[in-house]
């Protein structure tokens, strides 16, 4: 590759915000030449890495903006300990069909039985699936709606 192509390639990768490819390119081209990789393999590898990085960054952004008070995962929920919950029902909810169908889930029970844990865990599943999530509690929700109402932007807030 001549110097002009090399520099234009790097500058185009920056322009297109393909930062991971730009970072990996020089090293990977050397490795690819050494291991006689095909053009298809090189392109596939580089774009796969770019996608993975972008996906991870987007998940991190959505995790932050969701405002979960703690991180609770579905894998950490002990279904044997909480025998009143059917694991299959939660696994079905984790498919997130309810989000796409605009349905609500209500988790009812005394304090400390894992309602928030499951709510957060399902929220995290949604974040991982590319959905924007917002965590709130009733107090904050009502307060936020009251303020929005006073400011005449209730509809927008809802
Ligand atoms: N079945 C369970 N498996 C694992 N952790 C649980 C389980 N039930 C409750 N916990 C944990 O106990 C604590 C209280 O649960 P939480 O979800 O806040 O209860 P709730 O919202 O029902 O009051 C949390 O740290 C939660 O992770
Ligand atoms: Mg709770």
From TrEMBL:
<dbReference type="InterPro" id="IPR027417">
    <property type="entry name" value="P-loop_NTPase"/>
</dbReference>
<protein>
    <submittedName>
        <fullName>ATPase AAA</fullName>
    </submittedName>
</protein>
<dbReference type="GO" id="GO:0006260">
    <property type="term" value="P:DNA replication"/>
</dbReference>
<dbReference type="InterPro" id="IPR002611">
    <property type="entry name" value="IstB_ATP-bd"/>
</dbReference>
<dbReference type="Pfam" id="PF01695">
    <property type="entry name" value="IstB_IS21"/>
</dbReference>
<feature type="domain" description="IstB-like ATP-binding">
    <location>
        <begin position="13"/>
        <end position="157"/>
    </location>
</feature>
<dbReference type="GO" id="GO:0005524">
    <property type="term" value="F:ATP binding"/>
</dbReference>
